[in-house]
Amino acid sequence: MDAPPFAPWSPGFVADPYPAYAELRARGRVHWFEPTGQWLVPHYADVAALLRDRRLGRTYRHRFTHEEFGRTPPPPAHEPFHTLNDHGLLDLEAPDHTRIRRLVTKAFTPRTVEALVPAVRRIAARLVADLRKAGGGDLLAEVAEPLPVAVIAEMLGIPESDRALLRPWSADICGMYELKPSEETATKAVRASVEFSAYLRELIAARRRAPGDDLVSALIAAHDEGDRLSEQEMVSTCVLLLNAGHEATVNTTANGWWTLFRHPGQLAALRADHSLLSTAVEELMRYDTPLQLFERWVLDDIEIAGTLIPRGAELALLFGSANRDPARFTAPDTLDLSRPDNPHITFGAGIHYCLGAPLARIELTASFGELLREAPQMRLAAEPEWKPGFVIRGVRGLLVEC
Fold first, then answer.
1. Phi/psi of residue 227, nearest 5 degrees
2. C-alpha angle 252-83-191 in degrees, rounded to nearest 5
3. Residue 132, helix vs strand vs coil
4. In this structure, which CATH number among 3.30.200.20, 3.30.70.120, 1.10.630.10, 1.10.238.10 belongs to the domain 76-294+333-401?
5. Which end of the chain is more exposed for a tag (fewer CB within 10 A), N or C?
């Protein structure tokens, strides 16, 4: 059989991976991809089931050494990134994941998220007003990026004067989540990991001396039967909240408006009926998934469609393909902002389901709603270019006129 039509380093593929996904799904349920040494899984039912399968893990270090698992340890120079990453919820498995998530949810409660709603709306209103006064600009830089960063900074209690540091740190760290990152990418991620960790350790020390009404203070106070988060776990949690908590929101906002501009009939329907907003946000996350791929290690042999996937292998679960699978979604390549049945897996599933999903929905509803109300004539000024990254997939900018 020919090599799978999967080309994550091709600009054309990054701009529109969906035809290739359709071909992958038609060819079968699992495909070996030699350039990354991964098994590609493109179907919704498989991706949804494997996200919940405890024979897989985001890490293998809770059960095996690198050598036992047949893997080469990361270079010692990359250690600051891995220390930061390996103590966060995203890359932990039970029992550590269970313990840390239990403690974090004591601080990051539904009431905490709900209390942020006025701030989210206030920030969105200010950003949109500035964009409208200027007659337009780069929607990505002027609205999509600053909103979630400002919200998370406010939640963590980071002073406004320091907030400009956050997005560059996050972007450099997230570069390591792409397929086969370069040594230059790793060097940037290590530097950002060192600087961001040092900043957060100082912030944690300040909150220990003088607790405030913020999430860092709540993480310090969180305890369960005498158990508390270590300082490294708090640092890693704060970084994860920033990285995971804004990358998807930023790209859903910019990619979502680019999608709407290419579907003028659906945009007109949304502008005419703002009650569609909640289903529209879900549909935009499904139609053009901001995080295209999540990886899982095979901890025990599994079988997919008669193919044995051995322990030590790595799966690439294709979220973008799963969200366009006709076996689960009616007319999946059609944008339907009123889609009633939309169990997309943009936020994952199982124990790693995104902790920040409720906040992301609040931010997206606020920004899209504010733009619909206050910039009802907003239109595209120039076709965007895509960033080279595929896993975290988004446009470089989105120029609009108001």
1. -85, 140
2. 70
3. helix
4. 1.10.630.10
5. N
pTM of the model: 0.95
Domain ranges of the chain: 76-294+333-401
Peptide bond before 95: cis, by omega within 30 degrees of 0?
yes
- pLDDT of 104-153, one tens digit each? 998 888 998 999 999 999 999 999 999 999 999 999 999 999 999 999 99
CA 323 to chain centre: 15
Amino acid in position 282: E
* Top mean-pLDDT range of 113-117, 212-216, 326-330, 355-359: 326-330
Hey, CA dihedral for 310, 316, 322, 326, is it positive or negative? negative
* Short-list 287, 293, 289, 192, CA closest to 248: 289
Asked whether 104 and 112 are in contact (CB, 8 A), the reply is no
What are the two backbone dihedrals, phi and then psi, of residue 54, each rounded to the nearest 5 degrees?
Answer: -80, 0
Query: What angle in degrees, to the nearest 10, is found between the helix axes of 183-209 and 79-86?
Result: 50
Sequence letter at residue 83: T
Give, for 86, the enclosing helix (H) or strand (E): helix 79-86
Query: Distance between CA atoms of 52 and 6, rounded to whole angstroms?
Result: 25
Residue 191 burial (CB count, 10 A)? 15
Q: What is the distance between the alpha carbons of residues 184 and 81, in angstroms, rounded to a whole number? A: 13
